[in-house]
Each structure stands twice: as C-alpha cells, then as structure tokens.
Amino acid sequence: MTFNTVEVIIKNLNIRKKYPQATTLKEIADDLNLKLTYPIIGALVNNKTKDLSYTVFNPKTIKFIDLTHPDGMRMYVRSLSFILIKAAKKLYPDAQLKIEHSVSNGYYCEFANLNKELTIPDILELRNEMQKIVDANIPFEKEKILTSEAIEIFEKYGYDGKVILLKTRKSLYSTVYKLDGLHDYFYGVLVPSTDYIKVFDIFKYYEGILLRAPSTTNPDIVADIILQDKMFDVFKEHKVKNKILGVDNVGKLNAATQNSTISDIIKMSEAFQEKKIASIADTIRARNPIPHIVLISGPSSSGKTTFAKRLGIHLRVIGITPQLISLDDYFVNRENSPIDENGEYDFENILALDIPLFNKHLLQLINNEKVELPRFSFETGKRYYNGNFLQIDSNSALVIEGIHALNPQLTQEIPNSEKFKIYVSALTSLCMDDHNRIPTTDTRLIRRIVRDYQYRKYSAEDTIQRWPSVRRGEEKYIFPYQEEADIMCNTALLFELGVLKQYATPILMKVSEQNDEYAEATRLLKFFDYLDVIPEKEIPPTSILREFLFGSSFKYH
User: Fold this and answer.
1) Handedness of CA 310, 315, 317, 322 (dihedral sign)
2) Global pTM?
3) How confident is the model at residue 550 (pLDDT cuts 50, 70, 90)?
4) How do residues 19-75 score in pLDDT, each as one tens digit?
5) Measured between alpha carbons, how far is 52 from 28 in angstroms, rounded to an integer?
6) Closest CA to 118 of 202, 224, 230
7) Domains of the chain
8) In this structure, are residues 443 and 429 in contact, taking their beta carbons and an 8 Å threshold?
9) How far apart are CA 165 and CA 155, in angstroms?
C-alpha cells in the first residue's frame, strides 16, 4: 500500500520534511526528537494553535511550543483546570466548581451548593486527588459531537452556563473534551494527557480556592502568591452587581441581546459605574484634611483618561476644582534618560521623570505658591517653558494620571495626608461559563486594537506585536503598586465586548496568515464567535467605552 506524503516546514529547526498524510503533530515531534526548554505541549500550525493530536493532510508550517509560549501556558492552565474540575466532581459530586477570575498570581475558584465551609484538610484532600489524576496519565480525549448532544450532557451535569452558551451560539457541532468519562467544554485546546501537568498547587483563599499554575518567569515552580485584598474586594463588588443585573456569563449576555433586555443592562451598567466614580469623589471630599493631590494609575487601555475626566466632573459638583498635571511634561531631557539592557532609551522607567522637580512643584502648589509648569517637546526631546502658570487654593485638587502614579518614589517628598491614590483597570467581571474565564488582559487588548486602528491608524498586527512589551512594562512599573491604592475602580462594562466585536472583528480579519500575530488574531476571533453583536446606540457620550470608539463628548487631544 502506498501513502501520499505531505511536506511540512519545522520552524524550530528551520527544516523541511515529508510525512505520510494523517501523521499527527506528536508523531512528527517524536520522529524529529525535538527538544524545547520544557516538554512540547502543542504547536502553531500555519500560525494557528493546535493540540498534538492534530493530523496533517496538507503542506503546513509548524512551530512546536512549550509552556514558555503564551499559547502553551493557556493550554497548560486549561488542562490544569480540567484536572481540578474532575477531582472536585469526585469528592463533591453535588457541588459545582466555578473558576472565576485571576488574583494574587492564581485563579480564584468557588463552590456552589457545597453546603459546608472548606477547611485546610479539604484542600489537601482535593490536592491529593488532583495528583492521583496527574500520576494516572489519563488522556484528554477530544470529540466533535452534535451541539444538541453536548447540551444534553451538560444539562445532566448541571452546567447551566455551558448550556446557555451553546444554545445561544447556535452551531450544529461542538468540540468537547473528555477526562476519564467526564465531559467539559473549553474555548481552546488542551495538552495530550494529565502527565504533562507537572507543576501546580491549590491554596485556601477566602471562601474558596486559589489554583496556582507555573510561574511565567520560572515554570519549574508555581507562581508566588501576592496578596491582593483590595483587588479581590473589587471582584466581589462586581459579582454582586452581576447578580443584580442577572448576567454573569456570555450565554446570559447573548440571551439578553436576543430578547431585547440588553438596553436596560447597558443603562444599569453605566449607572453602576457613574455611582462608583461619584462615591470616589465623595470619599476624597470626606477626608480631613482634603487631599490636594489625586494620583491615578492603571495599565494600558484601562480608560484612565476618561475616568479622570469624569472624576473631575464629580469633584466640581462637590466643590473641589480639579487641575490636571501631565507627567509627560516632567520627562528629563532625552540625553539624560535611563538606558535599558539593550542600550535603548527606557522612557517607561520612573527615572525618565525629573522626580526632584516634580516634588518641588507639588510642594509649592499645595502651599498655594504660583508655579510655572514645564512643557516637554517629544520632537526635540527637550523641556521648555511657555508661561503656563498654575496656582491652587484650598478647594483645588491636582489630578495626576500616569503609569508611575502609585509608585511611592514618584511623590516621595509629599505627605501621605495630601495624597489620594486610585487604581483603575478593566477587570473583566464576565465569564464564558463556570469553567472558562475571560482574562482581563483580553478586554484591554481588544480595546487597544480598536482604539489604535480608529485613532492612530495602527493595524491589528502592530498592536498585537507591541502588546508583549506593553505587558512587560505593566508587570514592572504598574502591577507591583496596585495595592498602594486607597481605592480601586473596575472600568470594564458588562456589555462592552459585544459592542467592540463589530469594530474588532474586521480589523482582526485583516491579519495575514503569514504573520506570527495571526495566532493571537485567530484566538480573539474565535472568542468573538461566541458573542452576539450589541448595538452601541444606547452608550452615553461620557461612557469610558467611548474613549475607544467614536462619539465621546470629552476631548482627548
């Protein structure tokens, strides 16, 4: 018998080789005896993420990946989550495990219908059951079945979130995974078997569990726990709001869109956010003495600018006059900027700012002195002055927004009593279903893709390519100071991904299959495939979402 062969290009080795049609990726990796830093767990095939059971029938370009690759880590975490779900189902068959959000360098999970308080011995027992599943080296079996059959399976399990998601998606077939007889549904691929999950842990955290995955910087160990009590409180706050709105997953959001109750959800979501911003202004006013410096920090595309403008309105309402100071105007002259490890100017380093001058001016201003504020020319890389004087009184507040705003080094000479610190971010409060969370970084990336295309004429490739660098800067300069905030504000809106879909989808579809960014674009497009489009006509002109779309009543430039 003769077999047709197909040529593949292995990017890891920069070689071409022919294999019989229907050869799996795992068979190819084994044949090549390919070794990466960590075990191979998947591959990018024509720049689309595939599991190792994928069979090759046509010429392909293949790049094998391990868990050091972002898509590899996603595969690992999904698979680890399924192991936790399986272990929990065995020990607590009548309870429902919910994987809710990322916090403290882990993934927070809670049980519904457990009817008992989790104890440390319970956690240890659950952890041991997970280890048994890992040691048994059970395969993750993938099946494509009729969606109606998948719905029947998940109805029996009581997986209501998956049922409504599949019903509203309206696809004829759905791909499910099976682990030792237990079915589940993930919007992404898994590793071949449980034996691939070498590093993990679980930890009692508040009323639930913190699932701990490998560190991204050292995957041989689990990520260190970083206590984020204030962040956790924000998630709890939005969990309550979602309950009031009656929407906590994508399926319910789709149902609201299809039955025309989405209009009320938009209005209520915006009202919740307006109420939150007003309460922050009231908290500032209630301080004795009233702080004269309001510091706002948050990662890229968190809506800091619109938040600052809306906060300014609420401050005016209660008798406080906001005065904006731009940190950009306190850059040192370019030749004095710090240098990074590549010999390039490091403009995101806090030492790129003239901290002594900044503190001097703040002290003068809060002492009611008149100060000539600097300007910075990005064209010349020089600071200059043009008669921009500022003087404030006891009813004024300096509003300062920037990535370093919560770093104590920025305002080291300013008394704490004069500072009010705010952290804002789009902390997604919506899940796909009980076992598939929507990462907060995905919401911000989608916002940025739309904004960059609308206002800066950047392609999706440009934004996706820059995103890892943006994320590294956030990890270094923003996230370590989150808990320094006096208060946190979630700028994510429950409905926003349905609105952004109509803008982001055509932008993402322009990404060429030949580009490395195609994998990320495809992942986001698949995510949008689960969401119904939500019309934007109900969104008010002062909405934070308008910062990324057209139609804002605020001026940004």
Assistant:
1) negative
2) 0.93
3) confident
4) 999 999 999 999 999 999 999 999 999 999 999 999 999 999 999 999 999 999 999
5) 9
6) 202
7) 5-66 (3.10.20.30), 71-212 (3.30.980.10), 229-547 (3.40.50.300)
8) no
9) 12
